[in-house]
Amino acid sequence: MKIGIIGATGYGGAEITRIIRSHPHVGECILYSSSDEGVPYHQSYPHLVKLTNQILKPIEIEQIADEIDFLFMAAPPGVSSRLTPQLDSYDIPVIDLSGDLRIKDPSVYESWYKREPAPEHVLEKAVYGLSELHREEIKTAKYIANPGCFPTAVLLGLAPLVKNGLIGESFVIVDAKTGVSGAGRKASMGTHFSEINDNFKIYKVNEHQHTPEIEQAAMRWNPAFKPITFSTHLAPMTRGIMATIYTELKESLSGDELQRFFSDFYQDSYFVRVRESGQFPATKEVYGSNFCDIGVALDERTNRVTIVSVIDNLMKGAAGQAVQNFNIMNGWSETAGLDFTPIYP
Amino acid sequence: MKIGIIGATGYGGAEITRIIRSHPHVGECILYSSSDEGVPYHQSYPHLVKLTNQILKPIEIEQIADEIDFLFMAAPPGVSSRLTPQLDSYDIPVIDLSGDLRIKDPSVYESWYKREPAPEHVLEKAVYGLSELHREEIKTAKYIANPGCFPTAVLLGLAPLVKNGLIGESFVIVDAKTGVSGAGRKASMGTHFSEINDNFKIYKVNEHQHTPEIEQAAMRWNPAFKPITFSTHLAPMTRGIMATIYTELKESLSGDELQRFFSDFYQDSYFVRVRESGQFPATKEVYGSNFCDIGVALDERTNRVTIVSVIDNLMKGAAGQAVQNFNIMNGWSETAGLDFTPIYP
Amino acid sequence: MKIGIIGATGYGGAEITRIIRSHPHVGECILYSSSDEGVPYHQSYPHLVKLTNQILKPIEIEQIADEIDFLFMAAPPGVSSRLTPQLDSYDIPVIDLSGDLRIKDPSVYESWYKREPAPEHVLEKAVYGLSELHREEIKTAKYIANPGCFPTAVLLGLAPLVKNGLIGESFVIVDAKTGVSGAGRKASMGTHFSEINDNFKIYKVNEHQHTPEIEQAAMRWNPAFKPITFSTHLAPMTRGIMATIYTELKESLSGDELQRFFSDFYQDSYFVRVRESGQFPATKEVYGSNFCDIGVALDERTNRVTIVSVIDNLMKGAAGQAVQNFNIMNGWSETAGLDFTPIYP
Amino acid sequence: MKIGIIGATGYGGAEITRIIRSHPHVGECILYSSSDEGVPYHQSYPHLVKLTNQILKPIEIEQIADEIDFLFMAAPPGVSSRLTPQLDSYDIPVIDLSGDLRIKDPSVYESWYKREPAPEHVLEKAVYGLSELHREEIKTAKYIANPGCFPTAVLLGLAPLVKNGLIGESFVIVDAKTGVSGAGRKASMGTHFSEINDNFKIYKVNEHQHTPEIEQAAMRWNPAFKPITFSTHLAPMTRGIMATIYTELKESLSGDELQRFFSDFYQDSYFVRVRESGQFPATKEVYGSNFCDIGVALDERTNRVTIVSVIDNLMKGAAGQAVQNFNIMNGWSETAGLDFTPIYP
What we know:
- The structure is a homotetramer.
- Chain A is of the alpha/beta class.
- Chain A has 12 helices and 13 strands.
- In chain A, strands 8-9-7-10-13-12-11 form a 7-stranded mixed sheet.
- At the A-B interface, strand 7, strand 8, strand 9, strand 10 and strand 12 of A face strand 7, strand 8, strand 9, strand 10 and strand 12 of B.
- Chains A, B, C, D: This is N-acetyl-gamma-glutamyl-phosphate reductase.
């Protein structure tokens, strides 16, 4: 199989490249870029010297359609909205890592993203690619809206409770922390080392564009689900997301029962590791891997629940889950090319 | 005035030393240590080479009482419980940076700290030294129980709402993040660089010993205050605490009104800087200083409030607030020796 | 005294502001910026909220000359070359933190900096402001060419040997490491957190523009001094420079004699702390202070000397030394406003 | 094949485990520990939850010899000296990651390591396992003395010049920088986060025990090689070593000729990537991989050479090279199980 990546020079594209290099079912991987065509890829990414000789190619849809079997789009917001209509007539499945295809209601997209939504006929075909929850739909999709990094961590943490109706109209408060690579490779004051190192910032208070994505998915699972409180923080590290989620249960459960709900829910999901009672994951314990590790606790003093969910934002939060969906769509093992042991320390 | 510091080799002691070096009202500062007596202090802390020639002295209460006018205790838990009864008969005010004197109810102390509480006659005399809130009591105290780092950030963030009765029985959820220096200088797996760098950890889920300290103070301000949900996280940085606090208001306020409650509440408190509406502080913006910076937001979608409170854990969260209390007790300006500009970047 | 800072929005300008805030002899400090005129300074630097109400003013030479007594220039390269000729007729001393006035030979400047040099009549008046070595000349200068961060660390490390003729034509190899703040506040791939964190880079191999500055000063002290080998590395930290310097002695000395050369040389220089034999400084031991700490060792196996010199690049390497020169020029104590205890940890 | 690891709880052991998990020729891997026998391995290393169910076993030589085919020793210094004589009679090849078997002359070992050397009959059988340089000897060895992290980076950087006789009696100055994981997992002041973060330290000036290891290998290649000057620095990062090496050539070469010496020398060595002229590697470009990346420059002003060599200290500097040697000894492809793409960013 020949695959292509649009937006190869970003961190998402680089991470797909890393994974694909050892994927058992991919023969060739062609890289497209709007900015650096003609430039050897390892010039942007010297860690790939000797590992790839790819020259970046321009984004020309007809030619792309001609030379590849499967397309990953890892471009900045707005690019998929523009390109997917052109891809619609070709028989090439597309996994889009941007937020462009995730929000079903165009007006919601517009109000959170402050940009024009993708055409409705494209949005209608897009399947929300939260692998563990939507395997069946993913299998046959034309477009996969690959989930955002925060929504992946949050939704995998919430799903066992929401899908079992254990939180109905309860408050859900999400305090999320991310490493800097989530902001992409573009230089800005917000990614400047001296501004971030030895510093801890909160950067969007109830204004993050991943909010409607989380709510849309959770409300689809349970219409009683209510709007969340959601803050995102920037931690002085490169990779990793931790979502600490606070809620309360509709009905009374013991800590053990709660724990079992989680273990049972994910018992057939290789990439979700529910920790033992009393254990909570740290972000580095999934570094470089596709795992989502989850810890859960019931506080008997307040009867509230704390859920801790961690991922590597570039893997399970982007490129890793994209390849997981790619595997599902092609009927291969979900772990093909993805069974990385986390790098520790 | 001659002051003494017990526990000078810890980070809290070193930070008091840094402050006192340029304090206008202190003539001499004698350093006591249980472990390194006879050793020059700059051997433990080479950044003080040429700035101090102090030799660490042993902890002998009679001699201490003889040679100093004022005592700071910055020792590990358990030391103050043991030493304060011996100091009781001397006319020397004591500021204790440990948790030993903070909890009024010995059985509560015992159940959270898992160690023997201080004698009740000492606890009775101890004043909780949250400077901005308890100035009057602090002035005349024999013992100051200097607040913990997390409680300082959390209580300064909550006080305007709790003291004005704006949150009654509402839930209060505190998601706190700290730098590593809060764990002290003792080497352990929990402070090992390779385990923490590029990593984000949650380390106490509803089990942190600062929980009863926060609740005791808030309930004193408003007996309707309810037990909190409290998680502490370790961020890969040296200094700084951010507490992100989530709650809801008893009665409806506009965002502007909420903002004004905070600004008005702290208008006479030099060291609390309430940020303008829509602005939130980062930890590095108070680095090396005694400020507590606070941002607040009302989410109209959910009607919940998010409060962000940051401090330098070694300054306002320990040594800085101790010196602030020292100033209050001596009738000096609260800022004497403490008007450090934050170091940025 | 009223001072002005051109280029206040850069890190150098912010650091001068921090120092000047507690300087005993400065009444007012006016901030000038080419980009953000009319904007409150604390908008660029929220750590200064409540500490300054300055509004950034445009750079208009006539008005500047009218309203201030002393000028600091902390602008990007090229600005001083352009502005100093306009300042020449006014009786205002200028301390320039850029490299524009440091190199006496315009053709050397041009070949290393790849830009047009300042006019010769300005260069002639400029005194190289390495405070400890050139106090007399500094006192009466119109223009101070404030030394670069690397040259400060390197020259203070070399001076005792070069000025005593202990290294003649020997090789001198300088392996320098710097934190990221030395690159300024402008966002670029070279200052992107994700590219630098947990990474160690070499970035100029025998091509750094500070090379001729080091050689010019050392050759002025001893014409036999030979061209150096000089590499600069970027360490994943915000502040701090370490220069590790390797050379060999013309004549044989014992380790003790070598040590004494250094101690004696700096015995009257408050800001240079020569460490005891066998002790070497770390960058954080001077963090936020104006110290240059030096360690030295003779290797008896090879008869070579290793000198380790550390500074805070924004302090002794920029703003701190500028204020030190400001003090010298005004006949005040060298430490006025500058006696910061290093922040540790 | 069944392999065993003694010292599995250290970082070296954990990294071998990570590699072996996807090694095509290893059936089983048994973990031995002197301290945590009976404990599940993932309790020490939660990143391995679900990936291994190993229970740590005690170190009993007879049983070990009985149940495995090949042994890795990743224990603290002194352990191999003690255990290898016991292993001598068994037909099990051993790769030792400690320094115990590297130094041929026991008195040299003793004077640098300050501990008792291994028995001479063991030292005689030990082959120095610098894979690229000693492939033939490695193939048939009973014991491999796996090279130290610094010597690996330094010797791969020096080999093209030393083996070609291009540096004879020239000075060789090595300025090495390492991440903290090289110090192992044991907690100490030297690995305390707050002491290292945002700090840069020099920690052994001409006293590092890797000095004789480098000299022994280089002198074996060319007896004219002279004692080196060698300093090691601790950078605030987890993984990675950069060695910056300064020397001068015996005879005059152009920069291009120099470059070609390096490219040609390593053209058949997959894991050494010589960068193009003018390009220098950063440590993160080999992160998590077995590569050693090398850049080289000739300075025409001084006629000196600068060589920059980077590795991941836990991979090519320890576990990776150990597995590479394991592959060589078994006649497999050198890259078996080792073809990791560096993780970037």
